[in-house]
Amino acid sequence: MSRITVTDDTPDGRFSVLSHGSGFIKFLVPNLRYVGTTTLPIEGKLTPSRMQSNSNMTVGTKFANILPSNQVTGFRTTGTFDMRNLWTMSIFRLSDTSTPAVSSNDLIGFSHCEDYDQDSVWKSVHVVLSTDLGVTWGRPVPILTAQERQPKNGVPAYNGGLGDMAVVWDNAKRRWVAFFQKVGMVGLGIAVSTDPRGASLTWSKFDPLNNLYSSGLMGLGYGHPDLASIPGSNPTLLYDMLEKGWVIVYHAWQGSLAWATSTDLDGWSTPQFLDELTSSGSLVYNYPSLVGNISDTMTNQRTTYFLMRNSHMV
User: What is the distance in angstroms between the CA of the first residue and the CA of the last residue of the chain?
Assistant: First the structure.
């Protein structure tokens, strides 16, 4: 990585960058869209605008409209809740990934979503589509969550589901691959879909070492054994075309950042802490974003930018 930047301006989640003419478009969570005039995706003059939704960006599709009518769920008591807040953290041109024949204005995005039931929080991942370079978006549709929940400290409320993810396009195997954190799970999990638009009910949680699969919405989540030695969340991934491999960086629960490498997104090297970014006292580094010279998930010049947020533990 050629440059490391620590900033308090990085949002509470990774951001996405797309090339646009001689400049770029940068998407910040929860729904800010910036147009930049330089080739470097974090510098130069930025013109911000709010992304809009064709329906209502802050309310997702009800799970009851996706799941089979006879499906027994563990979601609350009825299984019919909407998602109230979302952070779209992985955005791609369909023409650069799964659907080369479509317009370069057609985008696909993957969102971390949270629903609140009094003091309880339920997380899930949704897919969203745009036909105008991300100015407006269709309604988010759920693709990943989990029934598992765990109590919060000493109170009746709970945390449930899964999220805090990054999604990448695996061109070698023609599939979308999501890396997520699930409540109560050690290590990051993986889910895959070979549907070009990542449609709901096409995703499976995946344990590549033991060849286990389960439903994206209803199944168990598998923590990846290769990434279990340093558990964490909020990953970011980048493909290095020169090295012909992937790197993942994520927030470790110890308060620092960890990284690992892979040639196929299935097997990973043993995670290591980033020596340059060890935590000091109460200072915590989190929400990393890798940005290559081609996009936020690809580089061919090793001109990778690495941004994260630093904060103080409460």
Answer: 30
- What integer is the mean pLDDT of 65-89? 54
Place of tokens 């449609």: 199
Residue 49: helix, strand or coil by DSSP? strand
Helix (H, G, I), strand (E, B) or coil at 275: helix
**Mean pLDDT lowest among 70-79, 163-172, 248-257:** 70-79
- CA dist 150 and 35 (Å) reads 41
What are the tokens at 111? 């969102």
Question: How many residues are recorded in the chain?
Answer: 314
Kindly write down the DSSP assignment for every residue of 189-237, as one continuous string. EEEEE-STT--TT--EEEETTTTEEEETTTSPP-B-GGG-SS-EEEEEE
Contacts of 279 (CB under 8 A, 6+ apart): 254, 255, 256, 285
Could you tell me the two tokens for 232? 């964490």
C-beta atoms surrounding 279 within 10 Å: 17
Which residues 6+ apart lie within 8 Å of 167 measured at CB?
A: 90, 110, 125, 176, 177, 178, 179, 198
pLDDT at 214 over 70: yes
Peptide bond into 140 cis (omega under 30): no
